[in-house]
Design goal:
alpha/beta, single chain, PurH-like, 512 residues, 21% strand
Length: 512
């Protein structure tokens, strides 16, 4: 019995080879528009869609497959005699395989802002056919991804075309149309409702399962936007756990947040415990480690550049759980090879790569809160308002910038102390900003680090002068914070009393 396949694709990669294989396996090909033309030019005997619909494509191609002969051929049940009888009565012939991928909406909104063009690239008939075929997966194979062509042909040729096989493709099909419609809805809300419509869709593509979630009794998996991990995350050694991925995220954001600088961030449980920018990455790592070598044990290191053999040997002096870098040389990988528990990842680039997501969301019980992503402006420190009598020197401004950026990416309440482009103390995640400042200074003292002359940054205003008093006692020379407290005047007076420079950025960067 001759089977029929309806093939109508926007992405025509591999479609000729796929249809040739279908024909060899006894399928008759029905096709539309550009797909039909491509198949015929390749010598494949295809039936044009209007021969099936008995109605011409119309309205500039807006209507061509929305037809009972198409959807009846897909949807009628082969296991019900009444459906078979009615199909025969109406002259509806079975369609046993549907291969559709949709109009390139994403590519369109990336290349143009022309709304008329965008509207024309919203597929209507395609999703309808995909949904019809998926609904009747008991009898119909639905194919929506060019990467699945070979597997489908293998199933047809080797008696693997089972109901379970088709069920898997049914799920893929509904994921495909759901993601497509979600993208359109999100785009329209972004264009007309500032991104905050009545519905918000968060769609990710699965990259991998993790062994478990935060704890062994929880399942976990990594999903991505726009192939960020597929394109920029390569496993060299080990397996990234759920918690590794969260920790990596914080470390990479900080290390990569300084452009082309030789930056190294060491983090533990998502919090920075070491950071430095130096002339070489080896120097940067060495200085970053001094901040808190105790916390660095078993930590995550993000290197904004290439890990060389020399740097690897230095890192290998303590136990590190994860290293991620732009690149890790083969010689460096050999150095790490003897350490069974270390995990190595690279981004295949000269520097670390950020996705720069435009939106951010956090799960709360029963839902999620959604917001514009927080970004530290390129000139926030440069344009910060000097409110004290004394000003910072150029090198001191560099320390202020580093402290400010690290603080902006560290859990509130937090303060960050930086000296000579290296973090020398940090207090984060505290319920009190005073506690954060004092905890940071205590740890610095315990580590034998001198904060004299350091820059201090807070991601939110100081409500009282006590933190300034403590910083002055420790020898801090320069301070940057958002300002905005009703006691700002007292803070300014304190800075002037101690001869500090004090800057207000007038931008708050809470991270909860």
């Amino acid at each position: 019995m001759v089977k029929r396949a309806l093939v109508s694709v926007s992405d025509k990669a591999g479609v000729v080879e796929f249809c040739n294989s279908l024909v060899k396996n006894g399928y008759e090909i029905i096709s539309t528009g550009g797909t039909y033309k491509k198949l015929v030019e390749a010598g494949i005997s295809a039936i044009e869609i209007d021969e099936v619909t008995k109605f011409p494509e119309c309205f500039e191609g807006r209507v061509k497959t929305l037809n009972p002969y198409v959807h009846g051929g897909i949807l009628h049940r082969r296991d019900k005699q009444s459906h078979l009888d009615q199909a025969k009565e109406l002259g509806v012939e079975s369609i046993d395989l549907v291969c559709v991928n949709l109009y390139p909406f994403k590519e369109t909104i990336e290349r143009t802002d022309d709304f008329d063009d965008i509207i024309e690239n919203i597929d209507i008939g395609g999703p309808a056919m995909v949904r019809s075929a998926a609904k009747n997966f008991d009898s119909v194979i639905i194919v929506t991804n060019v990467e699945d062509y070979s597997e489908v042909i293998d199933a047809i040729e080797n008696e693997k075309n089972t109901k379970d096989f088709r069920r898997g493709y049914m799920i893929k099909a509904y994921e495909h149309t759901a993601a497509y419609d979600s993208m359109i809805a999100n785009y329209m809300n972004e264009r007309f409702n500032e991104g905050f419509g009545e519905k918000q869709f968060v769609v990710g593509n699965k990259v991998m399962d993790t062994r478990y979630g935060e704890n062994p009794h929880q399942k976990g998996a990594l999903y991505e936007f726009d192939k960020h991990f597929s394109n920029n995350f390569k496993t060299l050694k080990g397996e990234a756990s759920f918690n590794n991925l969260n920790d990596l995220n914080g470390a990479v954001k900080i290390a990569a947040g300084f452009g082309d600088d030789n930056a190294v961030c060491i983090s533990k449980h998502g919090n920075p415990c070491g950071f430095a920018i130096k002339d070489t990455l080896l120097e940067a790592y060495t200085e970053a480690l001094k901040c808190d070598p105790v916390s660095a044990f078993g930590g995550v290191v993000a290197v904004n550049g290439t890990v060389t053999k020399e740097l690897a040997e230095k890192m290998n002096e303590i136990f590190l759980e994860v290293v991620i870098a732009g690149r890790i040389t083969p010689e460096a990988q050999e150095v790490f090879a003897a350490k069974k528990r270390i995990k190595l990842f690279e981004m295949g680039a000269d520097k670390l790569v950020l996705a720069n997501d435009r939106k951010d969301f956090k799960h709360i019980d029963g839902g999620f809160v959604f917001q514009d992503a927080d970004v530290v402006g390129a000139n926030e420190v440069k344009n910060a308002k000097l409110v004290s009598k004394n000003a910072a020197t150029a090198s001191e401004m560099k320390d202020l910038e580093i402290a400010y950026k690290v603080a902006s990416l560290t859990k509130s309440n937090c303060v960050v102390y930086v000296k000579n482009s290296a973090m020398v103390a940090v207090g984060m995640g505290m319920t009190s900003r005073v506690d954060a400042a004092q905890c940071a200074l205590k740890k610095a003292k315990d580590m034998g680090l001198d904060v004299t002359g350091a820059a201090l940054a807070s991601e939110a205003f100081f409500p009282f002068r006590d933190s300034i008093d403590a910083a002055a006692a420790a020898g801090v020379k320069n301070v940057i914070e958002p300002g905005g407290s009703i006691r700002d005047g007292e803070i300014v007076d304190a800075a002037n009393e101690f001869g500090m420079s004090l800057y207000f950025s007038e931008v708050r960067h809470f991270l909860h």
